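Task: sequence design from structure.
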C-alpha cells in the first residue's frame, strides 16, 4: 500500500474512533439510541431477586425474565411491572426514571406472600378467642377460659385455666402486649397476666374512670394513666392500687433505653425503670427530658396516641397527631417530622407512619429519604390497627381486626425510581397475630389455628 493511502486510512480510522468514543461511553452508561429521531434515550434498569426463585416478571403484560434477573426498559416514562409466582400473591410496582437520567431499581430478596394457609390446630370443643404475642392462644370452653402455648408443630398438651373471679366475658379482639405474659384489652378494661405459672384475668378500671394506657414498671407492678389524667400503680401480687401523681396527658415505655415516658403540659418526662418500684416512682424536675415540645400543637386533654419509639439516631415521640424526632447528639435540636399522624412504628434507621388519610409514609435517617409509600385500603370501621416491620422479609405488615396488608420496602437501598410500591391485602377474614414468627403468620378462625408460610426462605 502506498504511503499516502496508508496515511489516509490511518487518519480516517482515527477520526472515526474519536467521533465514536463519546457515543460508546454514553451507551456504556446505559443510554439507548433512538434511530428514528437520532437521539440518546435514558434507560431504566430493573433487577429482581425473589423468593421463590423463577418468579416471572412482566412489563406491559409481556414476560421479560425469570428471577433472579434484570432487564432494561426505556426511561423517562412511567413503567408498570408485575411479579408473579404460582401459589403466591402478585406484586405490582410502578417505576419512573427522571428526564434525561438513567435510573436503576433493585427489588432484592422479595419474599412473596403465599395464598394458601395450612391448619396448625383444630379444636373440637374449644373456640379460639385471640392470639397473644409470645406464642400464646386464648381459648374458650363452656364459659371458661384457658391459655395454651403453641409452636409450629401445634398447641402444647398443657392447657392452663384462667382465674376469672369476676366471671368476665372476653370479646374477640387484639390485646396490647405490656410485657411477656402481661396483656391489656383497653376496650373491655381487662388485664391478663401470668404470675408464677397461673393466668389471671381482672378488670382494671373503677366506677369513675377508665384506664387509657398501661405500662410495666417491674416484674410485679404496672403503672397506668386513667381518664382523670392520674397515674396509678397496681401490684399484681397484692392486688393493691396506689395513687402516684396527676395532670398527665400520656404514658408509654421503651426497652432501649429502659424508660417510662410521660407527657405533661407539653413537656416530656422520663423515669428509669431499672430497680424502680412504686414506692420510689417519682416524676419531678430531675426527670424532665424535654420541655415545651408540643406547645403549638397540643391541647390539655388526654392524648390517646402518645407514643415513644427508639430509632438508631434518637427517639421519636407522637402526641396529638404530631410526630417529633429528638436526636441523640442534642435533644434541643428536635423537630416536627409530620402531623396528622395516626399510627407510627420504627425499625433500625427508619420510621413508618400512617396519616389520617391512611397514607403510609416512611423516613430513613441514614439515606435522608422521605417516601410516600402508598395508601392502605382497609375498611372504614376499623380502628384497631397495628404495624410491624419484619426485616428477614423486608416487609412492613399492617394488621386490622380481620385483614393483613403488606408492603415490600428495602430500607437499605435508595430505590428512588420506585414511584408506587406494591401494597397487597394478604389475609382477609381472619384475626392474625401482629407479628411474623420464624417465617410464619399465625391466624385464628373459630376453632382453628392456621398459618401462612413461605417455605422458600432459608
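Answer:
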Amino acid at each position: 500500500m502506498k504511503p499516502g493511502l496508508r496515511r489516509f486510512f490511518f487518519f480516517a480510522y482515527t477520526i472515526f474512533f474519536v467521533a465514536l468514543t463519546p457515543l460508546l461511553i454514553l451507551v456504556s452508561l446505559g443510554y439507548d439510541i433512538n434511530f428514528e429521531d437520532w437521539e440518546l434515550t435514558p434507560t431504566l434498569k430493573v433487577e429482581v431477586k425473589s423468593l421463590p426463585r423463577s418468579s416471572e416478571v412482566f412489563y406491559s403484560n409481556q414476560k421479560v425474565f425469570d428471577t433472579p434477573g434484570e432487564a432494561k426498559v426505556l426511561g423517562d416514562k412511567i413503567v408498570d411491572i408485575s411479579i408473579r409466582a404460582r401459589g403466591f400473591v402478585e406484586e405490582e410496582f410502578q417505576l419512573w426514571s427522571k428526564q434525561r437520567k438513567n435510573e436503576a431499581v433493585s427489588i432484592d430478596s422479595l419474599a412473596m406472600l403465599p395464598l394458601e394457609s395450612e391448619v396448625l390446630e383444630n379444636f373440637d370443643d374449644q373456640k379460639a378467642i385471640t392470639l397473644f404475642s409470645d406464642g400464646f392462644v386464648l381459648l374458650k370452653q363452656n364459659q371458661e377460659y384457658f391459655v395454651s402455648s403453641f409452636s409450629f408443630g401445634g398447641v402444647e398438651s398443657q392447657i392452663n385455666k384462667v382465674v376469672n373471679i369476676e366471671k368476665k366475658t372476653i370479646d374477640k379482639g387484639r390485646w396490647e402486649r405490656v410485657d411477656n405474659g402481661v396483656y391489656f384489652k383497653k376496650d373491655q378494661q381487662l388485664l391478663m397476666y401470668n404470675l408464677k405459672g397461673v393466668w389471671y384475668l381482672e378488670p382494671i378500671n373503677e366506677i369513675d374512670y377508665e384506664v387509657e394506657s398501661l405500662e410495666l414498671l417491674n416484674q410485679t407492678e404496672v403503672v397506668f394513666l386513667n381518664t382523670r389524667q392520674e397515674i396509678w400503680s397496681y401490684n399484681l401480687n397484692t392486688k393493691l392500687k396506689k395513687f402516684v401523681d396527676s395532670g398527665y396527658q400520656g404514658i408509654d415505655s421503651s426497652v432501649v433505653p429502659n424508660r417510662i415516658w410521660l407527657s405533661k403540659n407539653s413537656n416530656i418526662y422520663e423515669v428509669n425503670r431499672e430497680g424502680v418500684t412504686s414506692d420510689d416512682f417519682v416524676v419531678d424536675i430531675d426527670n424532665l427530658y424535654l420541655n415545651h415540645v408540643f406547645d403549638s400543637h397540643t391541647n390539655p386533654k388526654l392524648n390517646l396516641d402518645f407514643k415513644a419509639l427508639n430509632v438508631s439516631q434518637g427517639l421519636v415521640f407522637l402526641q396529638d397527631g404530631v410526630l417529633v424526632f429528638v436526636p441523640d447528639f442534642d435533644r434541643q435540636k428536635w423537630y416536627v417530622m409530620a402531623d396528622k399522624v395516626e399510627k407510627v412504628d420504627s425499625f433500625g434507621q427508619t420510621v413508618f407512619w400512617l396519616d389520617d388519610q391512611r397514607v403510609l409514609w416512611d423516613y430513613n435517617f441514614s439515606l435522608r429519604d422521605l417516601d410516600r409509600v402508598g395508601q392502605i385500603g382497609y375498611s372504614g370501621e376499623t380502628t384497631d390497627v397495628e404495624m410491624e416491620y419484619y426485616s428477614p422479609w423486608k416487609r412492613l405488615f399492617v394488621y386490622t381486626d380481620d385483614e393483613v396488608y403488606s408492603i415490600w420496602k428495602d430500607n437499605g437501598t435508595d430505590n428512588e425510581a420506585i414511584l408506587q410500591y406494591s401494597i397487597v391485602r394478604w389475609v382477609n377474614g381472619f384475626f392474625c397475630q401482629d407479628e411474623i414468627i420464624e417465617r410464619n403468620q399465625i391466624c385464628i378462625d373459630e376453632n382453628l389455628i392456621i398459618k401462612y408460610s413461605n417455605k422458600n426462605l432459608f
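Residues 18-33 have pLDDT under 50 and may be disordered.
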